[in-house]
């Protein structure tokens, strides 16, 4: 025992754990850096801090950090048992594939993995048969994996730079031999274990390998931007057939409107989150949202993005259908006028009636109401209805000011919400300009932004690869006696 440890004050182990529990209030980077420093100060603190460090370690975003992390696991094998999540960089050309496979094989209780392909934007985005084999081996080594996220940080290759023998470019399968290689039983086994799957950017080849084989365990699916789903016209309907209990569906790439609606009908009893950015018709052209969404009794978040053209008639039907749902977040970002009707007053009246019905029906749960673009201006009746939504945090709507004296918003319509909705903190500039209590609204907005920034820093999930400075020094931990 060193002289420093022999003369230091010894505290009960329970008290050390109690002290370390306060680190959960730190942002993720500061928390992990502090734990590393404590682990380097004494054997006692190292032993106590290790579960906090290794259960959800910081992202391993370079090959050097991955080697050091693997050495740390080999130096003291009990550390590997602690690991439950990993965030890994997969270098272009697959040069560190073997290292990644060794790391996950050393972590028998790994439950969650983020895999990001490409260190630099201009790295090669070609996928080879060996890459397919390596990913199959990687997933096969994770017998307890239930959450898998894949993304890329790579530039797209244009047609004139492609070669005839390329098996996959931009994540898109180009040869029959690679498509055949995706029919690997290891992909099937991995897909059937998953409860959460998230695929972003150049990930079509992985989508083809996993999505056809998910099971009833799947609860959350996120398909990110730039991910082509053209390989299966009825992807969502087919998915609903073998994964019928989905709770969260976030699609940031284009999807066929018919496929979406039919799948939502199958998932209606369990779906809690529905987020769609862009819908198209059967010919691949932008489609109009119609009011044919099913009743979804447990839905909490409903989001239609800018690529979802929604008429006021369709909005009214949607509001009527979702009125029985415990909606917390409701967003329609491309709201247009009445079909074949130029009467602005008639459009605003129908919109206001629909919004008021939705707000009053969901008044106990509603936290966000966002209507954007086109004819999404609302009158004072909507603001009066919002007084019943006491948990409202965001009201992102534009006010009517020149259509009807009965509906034009006046300052008191907005400022009364300061008293009836104590958590309401975010309103658009168009509403703020009407208020006579602008400084109070600014105070609330600043407080909300500060709290959300603190929450983002605490959440490891918001610290993707390539973000912020790195703290880890696994060589110090591995070499400690």
Automatic annotation (TrEMBL):
Query: Which domain of life does the protein's organism represent?
Result: Eukaryota
What is this protein called in UniProt? F-box domain-containing protein
